[in-house]
Amino acid sequence: MRIGLLSVCLLCTYFGIGQVITDSTFIKGNVALQWQGEQTKSGSLLYNGTEYFYNDSRLTGTPFFATDSFTKGNLIYYGQLYTGIPLKFDVLRGEVVTYLHNPTFPVKLVTEKLKCFTIGSAVFVWVEKTGGMPEAGYYQVLYNGKASILAKRYKTIRETVSAEGVVREVVNHSNYYVLKNGIYHSVGSKGSLLDALSDQKSALSDYIDKSDVKFKKDPEYNMIRAAAYYETL
Description:
By secondary structure, the chain is of the alpha+beta class. It has 2 domains: 4-181, no CATH class; 188-233. It contains 5 helices and 14 strands. Strands 1, 2, 3, 4, 5, 6, 7, 8, 9, 10, 11, 12, 13 and 14 form a 14-stranded mixed sheet that branches. A hairpin with a 4-residue loop joins strand 6 (80-90) and strand 7 (95-98). The protein is globular and about 55 Å long.
């Protein structure tokens, strides 16, 4: 990016400008360390974490991003790029998990040393509480360009009482941000998005109005679409 986000996690080496971020943009050339080789190195920094515990069968839904299963992804950890690593992202706790030989003995990675990672096609980067960002944490990069779109995924537990007892349900939430000229802008509506991109407000408003999906119905889709169009203006 032209902005500070990529310098946080060295992704300037791997990402181009003006693109929807997916797992395939995370790798360049032959700089990757494959998991198959790392499996045999019990002392690898990749497993320099603590044991991860999760056992709450009472929950309805999942605390993890996308799936309960381990999914091969990529990460920059202790400054080194690894690819093809089995990962899960516990959004409820904000912890990223892997394993060495047996998935029944998972390890949570050291947050301070994990600057970015992918889960499937989703790319997450660590963002500090700076430049208008309300809290530090892992943010999903939805679009990378002059105006980048990030999402803070988080989950809460909602408890309700039924005839069977207390039901504990995991509820998904997302907050969205535009990163422009090094400043993060919280966006959640068409109006707030246009305020963040006010230098092209009129053109973007017309473009959003012509979308095949109403903004309120799918704000994430429309934010990405608007950011891509903003790139051309």
